[in-house]
Amino acid sequence: MVLDARHSASPMGVQDFDIVRDVFSSTGCKPNPSRQHQPSPMARPLTVDEIVGQAFIFLIAGYEIITNTLSFATYLLATNPDCQEKLLREVDVFKEKHVSTSWIQLPMGYP
To answer: Cα-atom radius of gyration of the chain, to the nearest Å?
Structure first.
């Protein structure tokens, strides 16, 4: 979808990227929240090696997801200056409301 947006002649907005809506409308699936799936009990706990392996996979996979998300968000902000201004105003309001502590103001005591 992102590549389609980059190569399309007409500008695309945020409403064009609702993947969940597209999936449900194209397959005729209806979400059914009343249908509950009970998790099956674990046969054995994870070993330390398995936990480290899963954490490593999440770390590596997270880089690509974050990079793509930030790239797409930047693209949308660049193509929608009104949204860019709104975001800037929201950041300014947040910064005024929540004053950040600089590292100089932190206590210098060591444990």
So the answer is: 22
**Block mean pLDDT (10 aa), the chain, length 111:** 56 60 58 63 82 86 84 92 93 87 66 56
Length of the chain as a residue count: 111
Phi-psi region of 78 (alpha: psi -120 to 50; beta: other; left: phi over 0): alpha
pTM for the complete prediction? 0.39
Q: Between the CA atoms of 99, 67, 24 and 10, what dihedral angle is there, to the nearest 10 degrees?
A: 100
C-alpha torsion 43→48→51→52, nearest 10: -160
Please list, residue by residue across 39-78, b when 16 or more beta carbons sit within 10 angstroms of its beta carbon and e when fewer do.
Answer: eeeeeeeeeeeeeeeeeeeeeeeeeeeeeeeeeeeeebee
In angstroms, the CA 37 to CA 39 distance is 6
CA 99, CA 55: separation in Å to the nearest integer?
33
Q: Rounded CA gap, 37 and 25, in Å?
A: 23
